[in-house]
Amino acid sequence: MSNKLHIPVLLDESIDSLNLKDDGIYIDCTFGRGGHTFKIASMISSKGKVIAFDRDKEAIDFFNENNKFKNCSIIKSNFSEIVKKLNEIGIEKVDGIIYDLGISSPQIDNKERGFSYLSDNIVDMRMDQQQEKTANFILKNYKYDELFQMFRNYANDKNPIRLCNRIIQFRENNSNNDFFTNDLVKIIRESIDRKILYSKKYPEKKYFQAIRMEVNNEVNEIIMSLNSATSILNKNGRIVVITFNSLEDKIVKDIFAEKSKNLFPKEVPIKDNLKNFNVINKKKIRDDFDSNSRSKSARIRCIERC
Ligand SMILES: C[S@@+](CC[C@H](N)C(=O)[O-])C[C@H]1O[C@@H](n2cnc3c(N)ncnc32)[C@H](O)[C@@H]1O
User: Fold this and answer.
1) Residue whose CA is at the smallest distance from ligand 1 atom 14
2) pLDDT category of residue 288 using cuts at 50, 70 and 90
3) Matching CATH number, 132-215, of 1.10.260.40, 1.10.150.170, 1.25.40.10, 3.40.1190.10
4) Mean pLDDT over all residues of the chain?
5) Of 10, 11, 29, 31, which is best to mutate to test ligand 1, by the most ligand atoms within 8 angstroms of its C-beta?
6) CA–CA distances in Å: residue 158 to residues 198, 230, 303
7) What is the pLDDT of residues 109-156, one digit of tens each?
8) Separation between Cα atoms, residue 74 and residue 60, nearest integer Å
9) Which of 21, 87, 11, 78 is nearest to 50 (CA)?
10) Labelling 75: which of 88, 114, 144, 185 has CA 20 to 30 A away?
11) Does the C-beta of 53 come closer than 6 Å to ligand 1?
12) What's the half-sphere exposure (Cβ side, CA atoms, 13 Å) at 2?
């Protein structure tokens, strides 16, 4: 297991947004190495609770080896299962839920996990090591159209024709060979526009991220989880999400906007607006930890149950 540190981004600001109550029940949907979980546990009373989720076995092992808090526990599961898993342990309502999206530093630093374009291992990219679908499977088996959709939707590349063709060509020339991260970097660099190739330090980054999002079904996980999480919030309970790219940020923003719509149209003559949720607008906060490159694109979104 990689025990390397994960430095949480916007830690204080995101926990501040949760408006913690001493004896509240809080859910950290993305335990990682526990930056948020352990901080919340240290700030609430022994009557309160923090329940963390993660789908990565290494995160679960880390919790079991390092947790010192009695008011803290962990569940190994996709966070889309949040309501079902909490109901199984008798919890129906909570006071706050936090998501710190994406992958942790130990996941990316462990070269064998095949997330990093700076190593040379088989591309794997699974957050949950028991899941069957790997990045290697996708690159070896997806049809042209499926590859095209993946890069168009998740890498925001409107026309990834050359990239898809080269992936398929690589398969034909190397039958049964696995895709290594180096192969993928080479294929991407040979396929993209020269202008982009020479203007960006890591032009492959967004394509690696797109494959990772596909492997881990990240967009659907966020949509399913946020939609069910809103159903278990107590009055004044909050959901706080830290996003790291424009696609996931837009998804969160749109879901929060939809949930916080007035229940009656403007034309209905009632005195006060009726809503189930309020979006809590925060100023864009800069993270002080400048050398943490994740912090550059991070932003916090927050919603509160009325
Ligand atoms: C950015 S890290 C969280 C870091 C954590 N806040 C900390 O301070 O250590 C994201 C974690 O969430 C987990 N994760 C991401 N998506 C998940 C999902 N859909 N279900 C469960 N865990 C998920 C990843 O495995 C990873 O460990």
Assistant:
1) 30
2) very low
3) 1.10.150.170
4) 92
5) 31
6) 19, 34, 32
7) 999 999 999 889 999 999 999 999 999 999 999 999 999 999 999 999
8) 7
9) 21
10) 114
11) yes
12) 16
Residue 113 CA to ligand 1 center (angstroms) comes to 15
For the chain, domain boundaries: 11-106+219-305, 132-215
This prediction's pTM:
0.94
Q: Is the CB of 108 under 6 A from ligand 1?
A: no
User: What distance in angstroms lies between residue 79's CA and the mean position of ligand 1's atoms?
Assistant: 9
Q: Does the 11-106+219-305 domain belong in CATH 3.40.1350.10?
A: no
> Six-digit token pair at 298?
């991070």
Ligand 1 centre from 102 Cα, in Å? Answer: 6
Cβ of residue 221 lying under 6 Å from some atom of ligand 1 = yes
CA dist 239 and 284 (Å) reads: 17
